[in-house]
Amino acid sequence: KGMTIVPRSVAIQYKGMEPVLADLSNKLGFQYVLDGKVGLNNGNLKVAARLREAEGNVVWQQTFTDTIDQAFNLFTKLKTKGTASVNVTLNTIERELLEDVPTKSIEAYLFFAEGWRFEFYSDWTELKKSIRLYDEAVAIDPEFIDAQLRYAWVNYLAWSKNLNLVRYTVD
Known about the structure:
- By secondary structure, this protein is an alpha+beta fold.
- Strand 1 (32-41) and strand 2 (44-53) form a beta hairpin.
- Strands 1-2-3 form a 3-stranded antiparallel beta sheet, with helices on one face.
- The N and C termini lie far apart (43 Å).
- The protein contains 7 helices and 3 strands.
- Helix content is 47%, strand content 18%.
- It is globular.
């Protein structure tokens, strides 16, 4: 039937909270939640993931371990296995989105992910950290479109809220 993904910008609002999944399901229109923990284990990336129904029942769970340079392949494998566990038939576009790798550089992605974390604060000090981290990501991988877009968006937020006196601009 296909799959609808709740955007990260919506999901991140609930980070660190334990909302009632059934209530969120009604509000946001999802049937399943994919969550888990990521860490390093002896220099390897370890991801413990689980897929739960909105009612809370665990449908699938698995732990993946791989080298850090294989992180994107590991995350693709995780998403593919999680999707397969609920017998979802993906169309071509959904499959491409599932397998999409935003950058070839793990280092650039780590700067990007850290920048995203600071982006959701409304004060200039935190937004400035986000801008600098996105800038680092783009410096490492100039073709990293998501980092370029987030960089531009955070600059716009800072400018539109008059949070900074000197506006950073994209060269």
